[in-house]
């Protein structure tokens, strides 16, 4: 095996081990309904969109016109904020986990506190008014503002960057959407 290939394989194995060590204790306390994580794999999108490879089993949903419109709104807000494609991947993966890219209003008894919008942001936590956080541009800009405040987010695995902003009860769940988010950014970034 040539040296570059061997280093790549060993690096991926190391990331998988490290991810398991750090995610294991947290996941043990959560009521996790997702399939068991698989080792990190190398992304077909390349270093720019998925610099660490995807972590764990990946989920994918078919998007309707409204969800696709929200993807485009997230990308537009990311560009307007002067951030790159990786920021859009993190944002879209987060919105996929939080709302399946649906701009959710108050869900009554099914609601997580007062969480609303694409990112399930809470007015009571200072994210903005209901009208603001249910506006895709505003909610994306608010998420990106939080992401910018995370030192080194560009060098973190997606789930750690998203969790640092969102503070979810299920921090490892963001990772499952990384490939679909990267595919959506690749498809819509220049459209």
Cα gyration radius (Å): 17 Å
Shape: globular
Task: List the secondary-structure elements in sequence, H or E.
Answer: HHHHHHH
Distance between the termini: 41 Å
Keywords:
191 residues; mainly alpha; 7 helices; globular; disordered N terminus
Would you write up a description of this structure?
This protein has 191 residues and is mostly helical. The protein has seven helices and no strands. Helix 3 packs across helix 6. It is globular, with a radius of gyration of 17 Å. The model is unreliable at 1-44 (pLDDT under 50).
In short:
This protein has 191 residues and is mainly α.
Describe the secondary-structure layout:
Blueprint: H1 3-29, H2 65-80, H3 85-99, H4 130-133, H5 136-148, H6 158-166, H7 178-188
Helix pairs in contact: 2-3, 2-5, 3-6, 3-7
């Amino acid at each position: 095996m040539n040296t570059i290939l061997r280093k790549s394989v060993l690096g991926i194995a190391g990331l998988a081990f490290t991810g398991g060590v750090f995610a294991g204790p947290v996941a043990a306390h959560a009521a996790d309904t997702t399939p068991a994580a698989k080792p990190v794999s190398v992304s077909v999108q390349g270093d720019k969109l998925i610099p660490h490879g995807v972590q764990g089993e990946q989920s994918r949903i078919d998007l309707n016109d409204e969800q696709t419109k929200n993807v485009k709104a997230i990308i537009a807000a990311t560009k307007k904020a002067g951030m790159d494609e990786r920021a859009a991947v993190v944002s879209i993966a987060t919105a996929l986990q939080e709302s399946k890219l649906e701009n959710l209003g108050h869900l009554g008894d099914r609601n997580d506190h007062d969480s609303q919008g694409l990112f399930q942001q809470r007015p009571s936590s200072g994210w903005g008014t209901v009208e603001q956080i249910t506006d895709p541009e505003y909610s994306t800009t608010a998420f990106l503002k939080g992401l910018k405040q995370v030192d080194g987010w560009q060098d973190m695995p997606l789930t750690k960057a998203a969790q640092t902003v969102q503070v979810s009860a299920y921090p490892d769940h963001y990772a499952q959407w990384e490939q679909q988010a990267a595919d959506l950014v690749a498809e819509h970034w220049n459209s």
